[in-house]
């Protein structure tokens, strides 16, 4: 948990510095929603780990988080790029 918190804070600081020095527009609400959902899933998987095996709780939490990320946070264009990268076939020339 401490590593996750420190990495999250480091990422937020890096985004702030990129925004202030390079003047890139950053969708802060997207990051806030992502952080909120991640915290909820982490808390839920931690609570589930108190009832069942803690490793099973974390695996279920990670699976739920991956589903939520792919469903609600990744755009259709990004999904297409991921499919092309994950494909073992070469694109037609």
Describe what you observe in this structure:
The chain starts with a helix and ends in a 7-residue tail after the last helix. The protein is flat, with a radius of gyration of 17 Å. The chain contains four helices and no strands. Helix 2 (28-51) packs antiparallel against helix 3. By secondary structure, it is an all-alpha fold.
Low-confidence stretches: none
Cα-atom Rg, whole angstroms?
17 Å
- End-to-end Cα distance, whole Å, is 47 Å
Shape: flat
Number of helices: 4
Run of helices and strands:
HHHH
Compute the number of strand runs: 0
Mean pLDDT: 87
Largest sheet: none
Helix content: over 70%
Short description:
The protein has helices at 2-22, 28-51, 54-73, 76-86. It is mainly alpha-helical and 93 residues long.
Task: Fill in the keyword field for this structure.
single chain; 93 residues; mainly alpha; 4 helices; flat
Topology of this structure?
Elements: H1 2-22, H2 28-51, H3 54-73, H4 76-86
